[in-house]
Amino acid sequence: MFNAILLNKNEDGTTNARITQLDDGQLPADGDVTVRVDYSTINFKDGLAITGKSPVVRKWPMIPGIDGAGEVVASSHPDWKAGDAFILNGWGVGEVHMGCLAQRAKLKGDWLIAQPAGMTSRTAMAIGTAGYTAMLCAMALQEQGVAKDSGDILVTGASGGVGSVAISILSTWGYRVVASTGKLGEADYLKSLGAADVIDRAELSAPGKPLQKERWAGVVDSVGSHTLANALAQTRYGGTVAACGLAQGMDLPTSVAPFILRGVKLIGVDSVMAPKARRVDAWQRLARDLDPAKLDRITQEITLGDALIHAKDILEGKVRGRLVVNVNA
Ligand code: NDP
Fold first, then answer.
1. pLDDT the model gives residue 118
2. Which CATH architecture has domain 128-268?
3. How do residues 256-299 score in pLDDT, each as one tens digit?
4. What is the residue-wise DSSP string for 64-87?
5. Atom 24 in ligand 1: residue holding the nearest Cα
6. Ligand 1 centroid from CA 90, angstroms
7. Superfamily for 2-115+296-326?
8. If I label 194, which of 127, 185, 265, 299 is the partner at 20 to 30 A Cα–Cα?
9. How much distance in Å is there from the Cα of 296 to the middle of ligand 1?
10. Ligand 1: does its nearest atom lie under 6 Å from the Cβ of 106?
């Protein structure tokens, strides 16, 4: 038997989340690798799944947890054997396939990647999908030619998981990063991660003009809605905006002006179905370039029981940085 968070749908459509004991027979039969999960995380999407605030879960009952790291226990997949250290991010796990907010999981070997040399399960989950997505965004800016001397980089949702890791990576790479946050009291924290400047997110969150003063050579946006529209309107000629999130909203009330008058590029970033080679590249870079001292500052460790409470907090924007879940505590 092992401990897990289990989600069920109530008759009125709401979600019931509780900690319970399950056995391997209740895990998905189509998983070809059985794993011991050591750590998982709470991402924004896990918050949506556990609270039922958005229809993230599409199969019931469901163990949430889009991220997991630990050790393979048994495998019929040719690439994996007992004792191998794995990382799992996305692929619909915790949405349509039983997830990793549990002490055990049955996953598909094709979804797993090996932990980079020297990385622990705890570090992998302190990074989690949020951190790996931040790296995908940073890589997108680089690939589009945004260089250290191109100008300032705006990071929105700065105190959140994606934002905190994006600031850390980009500042380590030598970019001048400006953090946009609703938590101005966290300015010292954001500067300790490498932000050169901190602005109030209220400057970006209300409806704005289609073209505004050119400020940003690049943007990492995890907020969407008016914030993304204003970021596009303030992006310098030829600059790039990497968009990955919707913390403010899924809408994008913008115009074609930034694209046709300033050649601004809007790059969409998805972590869930990203190809394996891209994931491996991102995780190798995270192992190499993410300062462990900064990651420590970003990370708070919680238990499986705490996860139910923090799921609500993350949706209310109350969580600073990353929550790593010790599923065995
Ligand atoms: P967090 O909750 O940790 O961070 C989001 C941050 O956005 C908050 O901390 C807050 O930062 C800011 N924020 C929250 N609400 C609002 C609001 N109403 N208006 C403006 N800003 C707001 O979440 P994550 O970092 O884990 O994820 C961020 C977003 O990225 C989510 O929408 C998530 O779904 C998405 N995402 C997408 C992925 C992909 O594959 N495309 C992968 C991972 C995440 P502050 O207080 O500093 O302003």
1. 93
2. 3-Layer(aba) Sandwich (3.40)
3. 999 999 999 999 999 999 999 999 999 999 999 999 999 999 99
4. --SEEEEEEEEE-STT--TT-EEE
5. 161
6. 17
7. Medium-chain alcohol dehydrogenases, catalytic domain (3.90.180.10)
8. 265
9. 20
10. no
